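Dear support,

We are seeing what looks like truncated structure output for some complexes. This example has four components. We would appreciate it if you could run it in full and send us the complete token output so we can diff it against ours.
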Amino acid sequence: MLALEGLEVRYATRQGEARAVDRVSLALAEGECLGLVGESGCGKSTIARAVMGILPPNGRIAAGRIRFRGQDLATLDPERSRELRGRRMALVPQSAMNAFDPVYTVRAQLDEAILAHGAMAAPARAERIAALFARVGLEIARLDDYPHQFSGGMRQRAMIAMAMALDPDLIVADEPTTGLDVVVQDQILQHIRSLHREQRKTMLLITHDMAVVAENCDRIAVMYGGRAVETGDRAVFERPLHPYTLGLCNAFPDLDDGGRALISIPGAPPDLVTPPAGCRFAPRCPFAENHCSEAEPALLEVEPGRHAACHRLDRIEEFRRRARDPDTWQTERKS
Amino acid sequence: MTGPRFLDVLGRNPSAAVGLALICGFVALAVAAPLIAPYGPFEVAFGPDRSVPRLAPPSARNWFGTTNQGMDVFSQLVWGSRVALTVGLLSALGSVVVGTLIGLVSGYFGGWIDDVLMRLTDVAFGIPFLPFALVVIAMAEPSLGLVILLVIFFLWRTTARVIRAQTLSLKERPFVWAARAAGAGHWAILFRHIAPNVLPLSFLYVAVGVQTGVMLEAALSFLGFGDPHAQSWGIMLNAAFRAGAMRTAWWWVLPPGVALSLFVMAIFMVGRAYEEILNPRLRAV
Amino acid sequence: MGGFRRYLLRRLAQAGFVVWCILTIMFLLFKLMPGDPTAIFVDNNFTEDMIQRQRMLWGLNDPWWVQYLRYLRNMLLFDFGHPFFQNESVAEIMLDKVRNTCLMIVPALLVSVVFGTLIGAYAGWTRGSVFERAAVATSLVLHSVPSFFVGILALMVFSYQLRWLPPGGMVPLGGPDTLWGMLASPDYWKHLVLPGLVLVSREITGPILLLRSSMLEVKGSDFLDMLRAKGLGEGRIVVHATRNALLPLVTYVAVMTGILFQGQVLLEIIFAWPGLGRELVQALTHLDFPVAQAALYLMALVTLALNLIADLLYGAIDPRVTYE
Amino acid sequence: MSRQERFKGPKMDRRSLMMLMAASGAAGPALAQAEPAIDVVNPKYRKFYDDVAGYYIKDPQWVKETAARLTWPQAGERVPEIRVIIPNTEPAWLDAFRKWSKDGEQLGLRYKLEQMSQARWLEEINVHRHGDIEVHPAVLRPERVDPAEWIVSRGYGSDRRNYGEWVVEQYDDLIDRQSAASDPAERLKLVREAARVMAEDLYPCVFGWGPSIIEAYNGGDWDNFVKSRGFGIGNFNAFLGFSRVKPKGNRKSLRVGMTNLLETTNLLGATNNMRAIGRMIYDRLAYYDENLNVIPWAVESWRRLDERTWDLTLRKGMEFHDGRPVTVRDLKFTLDFMVKYERGIFWTANRFLESAEIVDEANGVLRTRFKQPYGQFESYFMQLNVVLPQHIWGNIMEEQNTAGDPRRLRIDTPIGSGPYRFGRHRKDTELQLIANKKHFDPPQVDDIWVVVTPSLDGLMGRLESREIDVIESSNISLTPSQAAQLAKSSHVRIERTPDVNWLHGVVRASVLPWRDYEFRLAWQHSIDREFLVKVPWEGAGRVPKSNTFLAEGNPWHNPDLPAVPGFDLGKAREILRAAGYAWASDGRLVYPAPVNAGWRQRVVRVSKPGLTWGGLKMLGG
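Here is the complete output from our reference environment:
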């Protein structure tokens, strides 16, 4: 249903063009939920923006295709692409805090979302809005409030309601729980889950929270430095194939092993204007070898439905073992 | 603010560079006025035969022509830069110092001090500026000092409000708590810890002060409420206006008007560049 | 709404305090400054008893606090007394002058705000474009040129050289005198062109620069992306952005109106516009204290009222403002 | 009553007193004295200093300033700064004084020039707080053609406007006699004699005769403007210009530009402009022709019965603008009204009036009787007074509650009998005067529009574009360079009218250093009168031949006065040196030594030998 083919997105910056997304190919079948994980700045949100067609003015799709039900969103004319947005695919944005226009009531903004895609009589719209609100568990009476009168969780629910306004096929949820407290996060995730499970929506869920992905997604893609480094089903977390995924897993509390200490990955994500040669993770990878900094590994199918991009897939078992040891990540990499 | 950063901003901001160059030009003009100006500010530029060159258009003798009293417009323009700089600088510094102090004290101590000072600021905001200045000068004797005092009286209010807001946020910062925990007194905290942090911001208001001061002096002088002993650009315009020479003696009207505009513009441009340094968001892509 | 009422009361009390302070400052200025208004008014041949009679008539012989209280009462009741040199009451004169000043500034204000907003919003929206650069550069220049200088230049060129437009005044000889008569008269508009344009040339820069920067700020907001994601057309998005960017303009326009109302002394003199500012200067030249005092007071009151209105209005248009 | 009791000086607080003592150099026993003994030489003038001087002698600041300058300087004391105040409406004076103060530096003098608004300047002068030199121009108005205006105000020992406090007994005697001399020839003799006394004592310094009256008008459309000596063509104070001017074409509406139009349409409360305009609406009793000879106006003829009594015969057939006839009753009513209520400008003309009685109602004869012999009957009384309509003004004071002040009356549409009717009036903008064709001297135009334009620049521009036809000249006189600019427009004609203007400065002769005749002489030598005429006045003026207010061209001028001391700094220094003055190391002038008997004598005597000083006494030994 949605397929990224060699997608490349670049941002113009003062320092030069940054390749935020670099030749990423992903596919999402009808009714599937794809989780996109990675550190901030790895290009996850850019993919969401590219799919939704809301790249900032300095961003452009430099290469590749975004196929949505057979149409290429990358080359679609703006008016046609606008028609798809909100109607065929909808966004649940990163920070609901700021995603509402502060000077209009919530109702007005929901109304506007419906109105943007064709005429619907006012009473019908009101009814629809009420229904949406009820579905996300918000009081109808609060419809005429302004966004700032809502709590964070309420705002995110309202956002979900808005995403559902025209019953789209694809939902892009871009870190939908950022900035919410844990209890509320849970509720929001439940709503998201129900969109996918009960309403059978196809979903692209972007998050840096491994647990969320693990719990909700059929398929998972791990991104690093604009590249997809590993894809697959839930097994990605159970038996990672890429050292970066290993690192990510270490950095999150284990669902099973609550007592395990968290280990963070030292160093910073790569500069996307002048990315390091070879494997982009190499400078931070405790297992990197000279070769890693010279040639870029390809994303290879390691097992059926599982891809990874690492030169040393052969030593993965050893890596998995050593990754458990905090000292492994402390070693300064030379060169 | 570090030098390279400042240069960097100038580099990306050609208008600020132009402004800075202009200001330097005016400063040079003011400092070297006695060397540059062929005549005194009120001196009649008698011709070789003791004749009075009245309303003469620009010539080799009088670069910018002469006034109806036979005075050299170019000389007056040069002397005028002294007045502009003096008024601008003094009124700006005065208002910023007063405004910063009031803002700091008001924001830091809060409570009734804040209440009193902020109500004072309200009053200052409620008084119409130019009309009030006119009234005061009509009552007293017009002098440059009074003009400067008036500008200070009116400009501290803006600075005070901004600095107060800044102080309010600064005083909740950890380093202030740390200083207090270390036993620093109120004044020590205020002047050693908070003041250095608001200073760059209050410096921004120097630019505003210079502009307002120069403009107000010109406006008052133009209305005939200026200091008669200071040959300012406003006084020149007033003299031309009063002499009924505006329509014909363009050489008498344009130089002071253009100089005034350029000076204010230069200050404005540099002020904007400085604001960019302070507030990097302004220069984001 | 209880919060709002408390807020309103507090603001009114504050405004009242400021008015009182201003009145007191004015009292000190006008009554206690050295010099004696009778000195200017009396003819050279007045004898002492005539002067005393005049002083009595003006209540100048009362103790200062009696004068002060009477003055406060009169000012609050808009009873400005009688001018020294005119035989209408000061209040009547003020009414006329305020109207004339408004006839000059209101049209200029409307043009400046409407066009300044449009230009500024567009410039902010198209950041980096030639239009934006040109708009900003022009605004900076216009902002720096003293308006009286522009006025003089405009007069020199358009009135005296080209003779396209009348060189001042509000209507020609024998022209209409009532408000509606003037508004309906093409002559009034013709006379307004020059002072109006000069005013606009300066005042428009404020909204342009303000709207541009607040538009830039709004442009960085997340909700714009969301609007696009909702599938709104570019037009609707600009409407949203402008609506948000307009918020700071409300305060700005109120402050600007106040300044305009106070500040047209220079232009009114250059363009022979019989407004409040010119009246003030004239009164000061003749030391006609009651007139000068009333003019200054009205200017202050208008400024205060506008600031108050701006604050209240801001609450009305920005739902985030609360009165707690 | 002892002198100490009679003297109601200011109550001074201790601090001011100490400062005063310190300033005056008094010490020890003097501290016991509660008040500075500012006193006069001739007790005859005591009353003036007590009553009228109530204005300034009760002003502690005045006393302080004056006492300091009435105290004998100590050895080596410098001549203090010379303070001069200048209204900001007079840039030419400032330009001149800048030059003079620069020249004065060579004599060791230092000036302090202060500029202020005109009103403030007037106020300072009125309370005698104007510093050292009262600078004043002559602005001619009909009532000021009478010589008394200036010779009394600036030199008479008992006049509040004697700003130099110059009190010379011989002069005052002459002034008393001229004011009582109702025979014009005798009066002329006395006035000339008084002018001589004043000039010889070097009290006034006439800086220049002028500035010249230069006017411009739209000669393309108008003709036959009459020039009145001292007034010019476009001056509402002299309406000959406006009553004779003839349109060349079809436009019979004359437009007059003015810088301001003060608003009171009540003649009694009006100041300059509106007062002049008011007198075109109400008829004056008599008027001046273009050579300043008195001619009959509303009063057809008058007859002197004795030195206190005149019979006035009203012109026949006059009508008020509302159609009611003007009768001698209206005239009597007007004079009675003025005596009863008016204490403003009309008071000057009417305060000596004792009674006005109708002696022949059929022929319109009114007998006026004055309290004392009255020399200013024709040039003051007849010029200032007008005829008010009794049917409108009869009960006006009762109808309008103005607390007995007629200047507060509200007269929105003045009705008189004059050559112009009051037409449309928009405040601060325009005023229409409609010709009264039924008048005995009907105007040639249909109406006059007065157009307000606040700036000279605006006025000139409008004259060039024919929006106005003439600039009203009582406030504005053009300079030659302005006239030259205007002359570039082909329709503009320039007119120069003989003037009797001057710019004078009277020094405060009563205090140091001016009390010294020699100092006054030296100072006058430091004034470059030619500079004023040549540069600030642009050559449009005359270098005065003598120090007199009655300049050449004035009917009262005395041609035999001593010449003004010429500009000669060397000579000035010489005079000062000879008089005992010295110079400090920084060049400042130093008073003669206290032991210098000649100097002490001159300071005590004030005036030149032969004249008797009656004014302020020096303080202390």
